[in-house]
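Batch job 17 of 40 flagged for manual review because the log was empty.
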Amino acid sequence: MPILKKISSRFAGITLALICIVSFGLMLWASRTDSAIDDELAHIPAGYGYVHNLDYRLNPEHPPLVKALAMLPVLFLNPTFPTQSDAWQNQVNAQWNMGTQFLYESGNDANAIIRTARIMPILLTILTIILVYFFARRLMGAWWALLPAFLFGLSPTVLAHGHYVTTDVGAAFGILLGTYFFIRFIESPTIKNLWLAGIAFGIAQVTKFSTPLLVPLFIFVLLVLWIRDIVTKSHHDIWRAGWRYLKSLIFIFLIGYACIVYPIYFLFTFNYPITKQVSDTTFILNSFGSGPTPAGQMCRGTRCLADLTIWMAKSPILRPVAQYALGILMVLQRADGGNTIYFMGHIVGSGGWIYFPLLYLLKEPLPTLIIVATALILALWWMWEKARASHWHIAHNIFDYVSVNPAEFTMISFIVLYWGYSMHSTLNIGIRHIIPTVPFIYILSSGVWKKWIMRFDLSRITSAQNIVATMATSIVASFIKYSILVFLLVWLFCETLFTAPYFLSYFNEIGGGTMNGYHYVTDSNYDWGQDLLRFRAWVNIHPEVDKIAVDYFGGSNPKYELGAKEIDWSSSKGNPADENIHWLAVSVNTLEGATQPLGEGQTRNANDSYSWLTALRPPAPGMGNVPSPDFRIGTSIFVYHL
């Protein structure tokens, strides 16, 4: 038996390796054919400033880990970094200007830098797949753990954002890592596991500023465990357990911030002049919490957080903490402000609470949706059955569940917390923001499928005579369930393969497929500027395109890619044919923003509405329709012959 178990584990490891190889290959393909997306224009120069100059003046609204890792291989290219420019010397957080100058105006090979920078994010995504597997293996065994690893590794959304220099998959890794070691500590509260939980928590905090949600998660889980102890233990044990839980939390947070967050921020602010940091922090937080506190008065409300951050920036010891706090405050400030987006036929300031649930239904592959929905229905049905059997002793059932399944309870709690926060937020710019919950959704769903497939209804055995018949029926039922699951996984594999390399624009059949998802929503869900390299290739094979007006949305640079053929354009400049330019290329994100009806409170300059184009090419009736192009590059650049 030990030999068979070892062989089985080895084959599971080989299968995991194959999943990782396929995922790596698909991301590498996309990374080499996608142009720089919008956020990379800011993240790449920021990360290079961290590792090359040890200076954190760029992009403080995101923690440094993913950006810094991405830039480590770029160091070997030895590119020119324009630190003498005004954007670096005098401007405040001029990340976009620095990105343009660094990539496209300093004599560097921009595409070589971008491709090289994407290597580490791809490897981090592969590491996340492996972590999903090991997390799940503790709960359901080596073979069933392959199911969530497969779902995550072949998810079009993960493959899209896993190969960019952005923080969303990094956040999934950090939250998964932090939760994994936190659960290990709950199950075995040793000093070693306490330190591992603290280190993992700290790593999570330097991936993305959504990871501080681990703080209320950990507090909530340990609070529930303490309440369980109150119900089941004596008065003396209650307070001892409460102190133990509180002490553990304090040490986990202290280890994470003191041993990981502070040293990393200390390193990357080492050469950031303190006077520059103070002036930058003061400028960025000028409007936070109703503006600066008048001289001689006490701060009020949230403004105290800004004043404290500015004060800490003046201290050589505390300024790494100030830079971390600045990032959190910037995220809070932006979340309150929202973002203008195209969503479901209108230009709106926020998609509302339905934004993320609807995107999940439109962008998650149908086979994955079926797996998740089936698991949710089964789990709710079993909960109903157990509640009825226990005469609706809900609290008792919850405490029993937490005691037996602390990992599942923690994952469910995080999904509810994170989705609740996201649905309440007005910052609706992409399904990528809920990627940190995806591993937990897949792990929980896989556990339910395992239980459902392996479940045998012993209640049907009424006598020795029907044992064989009952067992045979159960085996047949399990085989059918297995077959359905295998069919769904093959479907997912084929759909992901056929989508490549256009993972960013993927929409399922409900959302009209990859080529039609822009009718529902754009931005990082569909058009983030990823098709400019494909556009360059198209122009190169069409010699009749001598000049082309380009209205491009994204992080790449049309002039850099096309040279003299490219004429920078916008709606306000009118019809380029009037200037003897008979070709126009427009990003669909720009087209939707210019042509779709305005939601409540939204305004638009009449010159920015592409009214002259819609007069020449009236859009077909229906939600999200734009003027029909003569050519379409990739999924997102529409080309018109005028």
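Reviewer: the log was empty due to a logging misconfiguration, but the result itself is present. The two ends are 73 Å apart (CA to CA). Unflagging and moving on to job 18.
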